[in-house]
Design a protein that fits this description.
By secondary structure, the protein is α/β, with parallel strands linked by helices. It has 10 helices and 14 strands. The radius of gyration is 23 Å and the shape is globular. About 30% of the residues are buried.
Length: about 300
């Protein structure tokens, strides 16, 4: 059962923020929902969470109107919202009970999750006594503690070191394998690349792309190769190839080049490289990273 966001509009006063956006979230396939600051991500999520009503359009699940009250939703906002002066277990149980979970079940779920993230010994400590990274893990426990059907994570890796980042990745992977819906927003593109199957990019209130990450990479890398040489760095390689083979387009990328073959065969181009004494380190089809895709499609929009 897919969740479909269909033709959503939202305005504040006379300013239209969302311009008829549409995209799909599939169960068990984490979707990265990306955009620059001010692009409309938070407005979309808040409307979905029923914080306010969209002006028009609808959200459907299995073809029927989606009602927040019918599903358990785990939400991790970018801004921390737990109480610094209160004990961790007490306030998590309180929030869990507000969501309709009995205290016994809530306590068990919370303690299990605290153990998974390595915080069981801090259950009866005040939140303010924890480090920034451990406070973020408590926020994550808050989002996951009621076994949600759908999880929305906004900048979940903020403050986490590599070890704790792996703990979160493992938790998210478990929920994905269980067929949960997951919407993931982050400016840390490496995690998006590793964790997500699908990608939706919003720019200035409009969706610029929404598809499988593999499909987007294949389409955007079409007809180009990536080349690195053993005997010269990228900038020297570019100058050399432009002098020897000027009929191709070259774009510097890290220590190598992205090359548009202009319809030529890879085998012929490779032979030409060997003929002009380029010692090849890397040669193959170019696939842009999620970072490259984001810069290409979301760059140049508004920012805060």
């Amino acid at each position: 059962m897919t969740i479909k966001f269909e033709n959503l509009y939202k305005s504040y006063d006379d300013v239209e923020i969302l311009h008829g956006i549409s995209f799909v979230v599939e169960p068990g396939k984490p979707m990265a929902f990306l955009g620059r600051n001010g692009a409309g991500k938070t407005t979309t999520i808040r409307g979905f969470m029923d914080v306010f009503k969209f002006d028009s359009g609808e959200v459907l699940i299995d073809g029927k109107p989606f009602k927040v009250s019918d599903y358990k939703i785990g939400y991790l906002p970018e801004e921390r919202g737990l109480y610094q002066k209160h004990k961790i277990l007490d306030q998590l149980i309180y929030f869990s009970k507000l969501r309709g979970i009995d205290e016994k079940s809530a306590k068990k779920n919370i303690l299990d999750l605290l153990e998974k993230v390595g915080l069981e010994k801090y259950a009866n400590k005040k939140l303010e006594t924890l480090s920034k990274g451990n406070q973020q893990k408590v926020q994550i426990v808050q989002a996951l503690m009621n076994e949600p059907d759908l999880i929305i994570l906004d900048e979940p890796f903020s403050g986490l070191d590599p070890v704790n980042s792996k703990i979160l990745r493992d938790l998210v992977n478990d929920f994905s394998k269980a067929g949960k819906y997951l919407i993931f927003s982050s400016h840390q593109m490496g995690y998006v690349e590793e964790m997500c199957d699908d990608l939706t990019i919003i720019k200035d209130g409009s969706i610029v792309i929404s598809d499988k990450i593999k499909s987007i990479k294949k389409e955007m890398g079409k007809g180009r190769i990536f080349l690195e040489a053993e005997n010269m760095p990228g900038h020297e390689l570019e100058l050399y190839l432009k002098s020897q083979m000027p009929d191709f387009e070259y774009l510097k990328k890290d220590s190598g080049l992205i090359i548009d073959l202009q319809g030529s065969k890879k085998e012929d181009f490779l032979q030409n490289l060997l003929d002009i004494q380029v010692h090849i380190k890397t040669f193959g089809a170019y696939e842009p990273s999620v970072y490259d895709i984001f810069i290409a499609l979301a760059g140049g929009g508004q920012d805060e």
